[in-house]
Amino acid sequence: MRILKLLFDFYINSSIHVGLSCYALVRMTQHMFHISYEETIANFAFFGTVVGYNFVKYDALARAKKAQMRTELKLIALFSLCSLALVGYYFFLLERITQITAIAFLSITLLYTLPFFPNRKNARNWVGVKIYIVALCWAGVTIGLPLLNAEVAITSDFFLKCIQRFILIFVLVLVFEIIDMSNDDPYLQTVPQKIGAKMTKKLGITLMILFYFLEFMKSNFDVKQLIVNFVLVVLVSLSLLFVNKKRSKYYTSFWVESIPILWWLMVVFI
After folding, report:
1. Of 93, 7, 1, 114, which is closest to residue 47 (Cα–Cα)?
2. DSSP state of 187
3. What is the pTM of this model?
4. Which of 57-71, 79-93, 157-171, 197-211 is predicted with the least confidence, judged by mean pLDDT?
5. Which of 7, 38, 80, 261 could lock onto 24 through a cystine, CB 3.0 to 4.6 A?
6. Is residue 31 within 8 Å of residue 267, measured between CB atoms?
7. In the predicted model, is pLDDT for residue 117 greater than 50?
8. Residues 6 or more apart in contact with residue 88 via CB below 8 angstroms
């Protein structure tokens, strides 16, 4: 059991699980826009997410050298380096416009992590900004990059799906913010810090209802997608209703981050 727990913790802590969530959302976009499966962009998103999240999580620790690296952190660093090499490989297989856009999102990630201006905090610590940066990057990577790489025409459906994806990620991040309420610096002014956990839950559920009804505005919606989206809305809403500051880290880092994967699996197997 101890070995299984160590493997599971490595799976979570090395950002493999969140990488699979990003991969699933890219595959979901390909399904929605009838793009034949193209592994380059999906794999680029997976390995890019692994590298990006590990950089955000462990960069400060590595630079400050506050603690000697444990075996797990060394393995995560090695895995991240391998993932970085694969990101580079898949990057050069992308279309030029996709590469340029990907660099733009990389720049936002670096701004989110590193303080570029003297005596200023990074974007992660800007008041009330964090959740919007995360939602924007995820929407851009999982909607914008796959469509650009497949050279799909930009229509009203594209903008509609971008709004839906932004809402989905925004609400999922709210779950994280509720759990982190007591640990986050009050200066950050996260949504739960400003309006409270109860109102944050109401806001999230309201946004998910909006997410669902936006589907009816598509140029041609199908019943299967409406059913799948309804299940998604229920899952996200339940994750909000049952979240509290005492939940373990696995509540968000595994169960909540599994929701995009389950959403994609539903369209695959239903």
Report:
1. 93
2. G
3. 0.91
4. 57-71
5. 261
6. yes
7. no
8. none
What count of other Cβ atoms lies within 10 Å of the Cβ of residue 16? 18
Kindly report the CA angle at 176 between 175 and 181, in degrees rounded to 5?
A: 100
> Residue 14 is encoded by which pair of tokens?
């090395």
Distance between CA atoms of residues 103 and 109, nearest Å: 10
What would the pLDDT profile of 217-246 be if each residue is shown by its tens digit? 988 878 889 999 999 999 999 999 999 888
Tokens of 12: 């979570």
Sequence ranges of the domains in the chain? 2-269
Of residues 52 and 16, more confidently modeled: 16
Q: What is the pLDDT of residue 269?
A: 86
In which region does residue 34 sit, left (phi positive, over 0), alpha (psi from -120 to 50) or beta (all else)?
left
* 3-class secondary structure, 220: coil
The CA distance from 84 to 114, in Å, is: 18
Question: Average pLDDT for residues 131-155, to the nearest whole number?
Answer: 93
Cβ atoms of 78 and 10 closer than 8 Å: no
Closest CA to 204 of 180, 228, 239: 239
Q: What are phi and psi of 69, to 5 degrees?
A: -70, 125
257 pLDDT above the threshold of 60: yes
Work out whether the CA dihedral 87, 52, 176, 212 comes out positive or negative. negative
Question: In the numeric block, which tokens belong to residue 129?
Answer: 């900004």
User: What does the pLDDT look like over 143-153, one tens digit per residue?
Assistant: 999 999 999 98
Both tokens assigned to 71 = 């075996």
